[in-house]
Amino acid sequence: MDFGVVELSRLQFASTALFHFLFVPLTLGLSVIVAIMETVYVMTGRPIWRQMTKFWGSLFGINFALGVATGITMEFQFGMNWAYYSHYVGDIFGAPLALEGLMAFFMEATFVGLWFFGWDRLSSRGHLMVAWLVAIATNFSALWILIANGWMQNPVGAEFNPVTMRMELVSFYDVVFNTVAQAKFVHTVSAGYVTASVFVLGVSAWYLLKGRHIELARRSIAVASAFGLAGALSVVVLGDESGYDTGQNQKMKMAAIEAMWKTQPAPAAFTLIGLPQQETRDTKWAIHIPYVMGLIGTRSLTEQIPGFDELEAESEQRVRDGLTAYDLLMQIQEHTATGVDPALIAEFRQHEENLGYAYLLKRYIDDPRQASDAQIKQAAADTVPTVWPIFWAFRIMVGLGFSFILLMVYFFWRASFRNMRFPGWALRLAVVMIPAPWIAVEMGWIVAEFGRQPWTVDGVLPTAMSVSNLSVAEVGLTLMGFFLLYSALFVVEIGLMLKYIRKGPHDDVTLTDDWMARHRARLSPSKEIAR
Question: Is residue 164 part of a domain?
Fold first, then answer.
């Protein structure tokens, strides 16, 4: 096993996923914001709201197109770089991906086309319905992707077949309603709403600082601050739910988030800040907040959160038990041609939950049954992830999350009770804050995915076993190709967004008013519902 291939494949998938995720949250949030603005336009008939809808909709369209382009390559990588993973768990992982393509992607793309090209062909209410269908389809797309990812974090509804050597789906219901997947979905979608709200807020603030498009900017701030405040509060509440699920299903990740080297007496304290030291297994200059981690991870004051000392010892025991499962699996494979004794399969079932831990030994030896005691201990130690990236990513994410609440509260108060008058310092702050949500969501991705290592599917399939049979040169070449392509796409995205932001709305309110009169005249009475 060439570990250069493993690390390069991980780097390629991580870089493409992080880049793709630059577009996802803005697409999720802008789709809803645009639908809200169009709803106000249809309800009031005021041209300014149609102008706002079309302007922010054009930015949504640019972001949507780039998101699709970068998302397609993500799925190709499962066949290119992760062939054994696709073979091993494709029956389960492929189902939500297929539904994402059939139900969400095609529906989303269809309605996006209708929205952009249907202004002159649909009634106002018909076009509004399309706007909301775009928002629903966009969020459905995220749902199926996160169901697939949630299964990797908490593999439920599946069973290993010792004859075919593959995981098989036994309960699609359990996969769809996996608590980890549902918590990830609502948390991710809420983060997208915050991202779009901060973006709209920042661009609108820039217009006010420049003295341009004043009415559009003020109303956009009113919508963004209200929607963003609801989203930011939801992120905190739903993030707590996600933390609880992590504490129940991914104890090693929870220990890494907290840098909990040793099991503490209940209730565990939360480390506000500190410097985790992997080598010495301690955290220097740590500042603790009593009880908080116990409440997040267990929702009680009496349950412990296990530390790395306890979890690593548990992993060692699971590796040893997994060796029994592996030995039984090899016996089953020897008899597949002549018929497998049901008693052998029944005995395997008693140990199969730890088979993945035996696979960890393949990093050091081809036949795990020949592993030495030192190799078994090293495999158990490998289940402890590198702590400092997870520890700091979590705290950056949380710190930014609370800053978004304060930002939205302030602008919502000024928009609602100060006649939409905003001081210059607040407007400049809003502009500076535009990149912050992307930093927060990327940190969240690092916590979720890096914290799962060394597993591709937690407790089932190690990352080192999941790669394709490729050379370092082949993976390095595709990595360089993706880097160049994505760099070019990033330049295109930023260039187009800045161009349309500088340009502003494509027409003014007077032109919008004239268009509305002509549009009503063109539509037949049967198409235009009485207003």
Answer: no
Is there a single domain that holds both residue 103 and residue 231?
Answer: yes
The answer to whether residues 449 and 352 belong to one domain is no
Q: State whether the Cα torsion 125-126-128-133 is positive or negative.
A: positive
End position of a domain, from candidates 350, 382, 414: 382
pLDDT at position 396: 94
If DSSP states are collapsed to H, E and C, what string results for 24-54? HHHHHHHHHHHHHHHHHHHHHCCHHHHHHHH
Give the pLDDT confidence of 255-314 residue by residue, as tens digits.
899 888 888 888 888 888 889 988 888 889 988 888 888 777 777 778 888 889 999 999
For residue 456, give Cα distances in angstroms to 4, 179, 446, 453, 464. 17, 19, 14, 7, 8
Per-residue pLDDT at 519 = 61
pLDDT tens, residue by residue, 193-244: 999 999 999 999 999 999 989 999 999 999 999 999 999 999 888 877 777 7
Note whether residue 264 is domain-resident: no
CB 90 within 8 A of CB 484: no
Q: How many domains does the chain have?
A: 2
Closest CA to 297 of 348, 257, 349: 257
Of the residues 351, 382, 413, the one at which a domain ends = 382
Q: Contact, 51 vs 130, CB < 8 A?
A: no
How far apart CA 503 and CA 500 sit, in angstroms, is 5
Residue 187 covered by a domain: yes
Are residue 230 and residue 365 in the same domain, yes or no? no
Q: What angle do CA 318, 322, 323 make, to 5 degrees?
A: 125
Side chain identity, residue 64: F
Q: Within this chain, do residues 396 and 373 fall inside the same structural domain, yes or no?
A: no
Q: What is the pTM of this model?
A: 0.89
DSSP string, 131-155: HHHHHHHHHHHHHHHHHHHHHHHS-
For 526, phi and psi rounded to 5 degrees?
-70, -25
Q: Are residues 81 and 205 in the same domain?
A: yes
CB crowding 478-502: b at 16 or more within 10 Å, else e: bbeebeeebeebeeebeebbeebee
The predicted-structure confidence for 478-526, as pLDDT tens digits, reads as follows 888 888 988 888 898 899 999 999 988 875 555 666 666 666 666 555 4
Query: Tens of pLDDT along 76-86?
Result: 788 888 989 99
User: Is the domain of 218 the same as that of 333?
Assistant: no
Together in a domain, 112 and 142: yes
Rounded to 5 degrees, φ, ψ at 273 are -160, 155
- List pLDDT tens digits, range 115-130: 988 888 888 899 999 9
Q: Say if residue 322 is in the same domain as residue 410.
A: no
Q: Which residues form the domain of 373?
A: 308-382
pLDDT tens, position by position, 346-385: 898 999 899 999 999 998 998 999 999 999 999 999 999 9
pLDDT, tens digit, 9 for 90 and up, residues 410-457: 999 999 888 888 999 999 999 999 999 999 999 999 998 888 889 999
Q: How many residues does the chain have?
A: 531
